[in-house]
Write a structure and sequence with these properties.
The chain is mainly α. The chain is built from 5 helices and 2 strands. A two-stranded antiparallel sheet has the order 1-2.
């Protein structure tokens, strides 16, 4: 192992109770991409995802039993992070899966109604008088 790999292995052991070898195995299972969006880890740094209800962030050390997959920064922060915060905010107390099912039901209800209104049709650019003068 290089010194950089040893440092990463130590960090993974100290914080996530896992190893670089285990993370590399997980990367292989995920075809070296984010478990949600598929972004390649050759371009995006993998982040170890874990269940925050099990080990809150303030502890800065996690048990390892709550480790999930590897995510890119965007999915880790803006998808999973936001959903988990929404589920625990203001005593909502629902699981992320229940929350996602409600989101799906909401969007499933509105999508056909918006299609009927023409919302998803390609919009044609309106020609203004100014554009018409420029083309003459």
């Amino acid at each position: 192992m290089t010194s950089r790999e040893r440092a990463k292995d130590k960090r993974l052991r100290d914080i996530y109770n896992t190893t670089l070898e285990a993370q590399n195995e997980q990367r292989g299972k995920q075809k070296d991409g984010c478990a949600i969006c598929g972004r390649s880890f050759t371009k995006f740094t993998p982040f170890q995802d874990h269940e925050h209800k099990c080990c809150p962030r303030r502890k800065k050390k996690f048990c390892g039993r709550c480790n999930r997959g590897l995510l890119c920064f965007l999915c880790n922060k803006y998808v999973v992070g936001v959903i988990e915060r929404q589920c625990s905010a203001n005593n909502v107390n629902m699981t992320p899966l229940e929350f996602l099912e409600r989101i799906k039901a909401y969007l499933s209800y509105w999508t056909p109604l918006l299609k009927l209104k023409g919302c998803y049709e390609e919009k044609q650019e309106k020609t203004t008088a100014r554009k018409a003068k420029k083309s003459v």
